[in-house]
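Lay summary. Proteins are chains of building blocks that fold into shapes, and those shapes determine what they do. In this project we predict the shape from the chain. Here is one chain we studied, written as its sequence of building blocks.
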Amino acid sequence: MRRVGVLVFPGSNCEHDVVRALGELDTPAELVWHSATDLSAYDGLVLPGGFAHGDYLRPGALARFSPVMASVADAAASGVPVLGICNGFQVLTEAGLLPGALQQNAGLTFISEPTALRVASTRSVLTRTTPVGTRLVIPINHFSGAYTCDDATYDELVAQDRIVLRYEDNPNGSRGDIAGIANAAGNVVGLMPHPERAMSTLLGSADGRELLASFVGSGVLVG
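And here is the predicted shape, written in a compact code that computers can read:
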């Protein structure tokens, strides 16, 4: 990718981590305020973690109405890679760009810890270069991170190979141990773990590099 736009909503707090992580992969990234309506300058988009609009109503519910989201939807429809991390994943589900929803963790506890994942599919811009079954250690940091959906949606995700990451030891009650999913085209991905916080073994894990390197190395998939 030549340039990635990192969206910023009021309450986002992981945007600079994402910019730094992408910079380590020699990919220029720029912060994009949520009132922007033209995203044509970017080859990829990231919705970072945080507490968009203070998580009022529910996480991501207000952010999905930000002016930028119409442009995100257009970009996604044209095949531009879009990645939602933690709160960004919540925004993508609220906006209808990914199915299902994120609800409060089992036990109603905030969780912040390294978490083991398994790659469940390579049919996404995030996991296309990592073999199925690969074990990754990526930190999580959320209160509302349990993925949920109805039976028909879950069956569709399984049938279309759209569950891209599963927890090895489910920390939050997420249905089917789901940690990340993709849209049907594979260019829109949401995950609760934070790969931008797993860029160096000095900080515990460098496994996030593998996922983000796959993302920035991808191109337009459809359209």
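What the prediction tells us: The chain has one domain: 4-216.
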